[in-house]
Design brief:
This protein is α/β, with parallel strands linked by helices and 119 residues long. It has a domain of 76 residues: 2-Layer Sandwich (Nucleotidyltransferase, domain 5), CATH 3.30.420. The chain contains 3 helices and 5 strands, in the order αβββαβαβ. The protein starts with a helix and ends with a strand.
């Protein structure tokens, strides 16, 4: 009987989720405000695409292409931080490049970083 108790205890300890549930994550999208006036930054989201460019993975921010995390971080530092940034990851790249893009955004000072997988 004590073996069953310890197995149940071990099972519940191993299967406990310590991460924050996704339904409680704060969304980056903003609702429309009462005023009808909106700024230009509302219509131009900052999107970093992680994709295969030629034969190697790279990062695309607007029309600029970056091959390493340091160059991407330097480019992101010049952008406004308030709207946040979207990291759009295509299927044909390794997860390490996606994680590097998220870390580059964090290193550049962005607090709102949203991961968007390719469809």
């Amino acid at each position: 009987m004590i073996d069953v108790t310890f197995l149940l205890l071990l099972y519940f300890m191993v299967t406990t989720v310590l991460a924050k549930p996704e339904d409680r994550l704060s969304p980056t999208l903003h609702t429309q405000r009462d005023s009808a006036v909106s700024s230009a930054s509302d219509f131009q989201p900052q999107i970093v695409e992680v994709m295969r460019i030629g034969d190697a993975p790279g990062y695309r921010l607007g029309a600029s292409i970056f091959r390493d995390k340091a160059a991407l971080t330097a480019a992101l530092r010049g952008l406004p931080k308030a709207p946040g940034v979207f990291i759009n990851v295509h299927d044909d790249v390794d997860v390490a490049y996606a994680v590097a893009a998220v870390q580059a955004a964090r290193d550049a000072g962005f607090e709102q970083v949203t991961y968007v997988p390719a469809k």
